[in-house]
Design brief:
Blueprint lengths: L2 H18 L18 E4 L4 E8 L18 E6 L3 E8 L8 E3 L26 E6 L5 E6 L11 E7 L5 E4 L2
Length: 172
């Protein structure tokens, strides 16, 4: 094999590797896991723990929670339940988790209904937990408030209902 052919082969391999590990759009192919793995509830205590992993699994698009984006991850919580959100950032850029009303909100519905400093976010590899208890039914979002993240699809649909049991499912 000549020098030119070897160089072209090495460049081709490098380009394929870079495409498979693109830090801007994801870290490679992957399948979103079953959302039910990320909810644990105690009906007697009226308490639920939701785990949201930013940039997971390694997928074609890292602006997601648990592999779902653009509101395709739907979380339903009854009024009065205590909700603990465990937010973990496995992405390559800062991300956060915050309960907001709409797509243009830059602050949580209530103080403390987010990870610390939600517009700055958690650095890759960091995690944080927050607790909230909704008192009004309605449609909300859990979104990353780091600039550009929510617009890129980094949000889950949060439905607060008058009664029922907590659920998490995919609308994809």
């Amino acid at each position: 094999m000549g020098l030119r052919t070897a160089t072209a082969a090495c460049l081709g391999i490098a380009m394929l590797s870079a495409a498979a590990c693109d830090p801007l759009t994801g870290t490679g192919p992957g399948t979103a896991p079953d959302p039910k793995r990320y909810i644990h509830s105690d009906p007697q205590a009226r308490a639920v723990v939701i785990t949201l992993i930013a940039g997971y699994p390694a997928g074609d698009y890292q602006f997601n929670y648990n592999g779902y984006r653009n509101g395709t991850l739907v979380i339903t919580i009854p009024i009065g339940w205590q909700v603990t959100v465990q937010c973990e950032n496995r992405g390559t850029v800062p991300n956060s988790c915050a309960v907001v009303r709409g797509s243009h909100d830059l602050t949580p519905v209530e103080p403390g209904w987010s990870t610390p400093d939600p517009t700055r976010g958690l650095e890759p590899g960091q995690s944080a937990t927050f607790v909230f208890s909704p008192s009004l039914s309605g449609s909300y979002r859990i979104a990353s408030l780091v600039g550009g993240s929510e617009a890129s699809g980094m949000w889950a649909d949060l439905e607060v209902t008058p009664q029922g049991t907590p659920t998490i499912k995919s609308e994809a």
